[in-house]
Amino acid sequence: MRFRHPDGSTVHLAYCTNVHPAETLDGVLAQLRDHCEPVRRRLGRDRLGIGLWLARDAAHALVTDPSALRGLRCELDRRGLEVVTLNGFPYEGFGAEEVKYRVYTPDWADPERLEHTTSLARVLAGLLPDDVTDGSISTLPLAWRTACDERRAQTARTALRTLAERLDALQELTGRSIRVALEPEPGCVVETTRDAIAPLTAIAHGRVGICVDTCHLATSFEDPHTALDDLTRAGVPVVKSQLSAALHAEQPHLPEVREALAAFAEPRFLHQTRTSTAAGLRGTDDLDEALSGDALPDAGPWRAHFHVPLHAAPAAPLTSTLPVLKSVLTRLVGGPQPLTRHLEVETYTWQALPPELRPRGRTQLADGIAAELTLARDLLTDLGLKELP
Known about the structure:
Blueprint: E1 2-4, E2 10-16, H1 25-43, E3 48-53, H2 56-64, H3 66-78, E4 81-87, H4 111-127, E5 134-139, H5 150-174, E6 177-182, H6 193-203, E7 208-213, H7 214-219, H8 224-234, E8 238-243, E9 245-249, H9 255-262, E10 273-277, E11 280-284, H10 287-291, E12 302-308, E13 318-320, H11 322-333, E14 342-345, H12 362-382, E15 386-387
Helix pairs in contact: 1-2, 1-12, 2-3, 2-4, 4-5, 6-8
């Protein structure tokens, strides 16, 4: 979906396909047929943006076979879909029964991360619509915190500089400008937007910036205005933003609140949980750890890294951090010029919701994704953006 900002520029809105597990190119093509096109039809749109997730095998197939890349581009066109951004965070196995810590490997100290992201950039340059010259790729924020000493951190920074040089060369070759965005996430070396400033200014290259994920920002209790002001002062570009909402519990000391939270503790994804205290941010790596004993102080609200549907906050006594998303979006695109032009709804946890909240089949899932995009669309038009055909 495209929108005209009051300054005349185009802002793109997509939804991320990592909600649909697929490891191969055939699986990606099936996604377009079974999920993405039905969502477009529900929205009554001739064109729908998707933030494509390409696992290692799918990316390798596309970058080594020009005919396969042309075939994917044709399939996107045929189904009324377009791609200006990729989710390059998960490497493979995102649809596995247990993902947890595996999503952080390989990290940026591993040469495979550089090669994979380079492949994604080459693929994206070939998938961009004819009238679009700028693409974006979100990626993991260097590494999980326990896997990164100073030597590996330096290796990661060097890899990102190498990537930036490759992206420069790619633009010279194709005329397409691809940028990569570190996505701060709780528990990682770069957990917050502030954590991103030092490594990104050290790299000092406009090709590498930040992806503001509004669930992650809320989980870490960051103030949206402070975070975006800090990035602007540091000259760190917001390459893209993922529109997502975290799980919020206002009174986690109450038994009924803990019982409600326990329904969201599930074995597939990691749900880092945080609370803000007078001594600073406190947290656990997962929700079940927070709920066991006194691992996490419960005098103040808890937030858990669980991407809940934007349009459907959990039932009381829980809620979501949708107000944080709205505040971030206002700052990103509500001013005289947009701070980013790539927005991506990313709710990959539909099938990890408590059983009674999960969509039953493709039809309900498509309905839910369409409802999220409708909410995002309405927020954008309320900010003065005009939806384009």
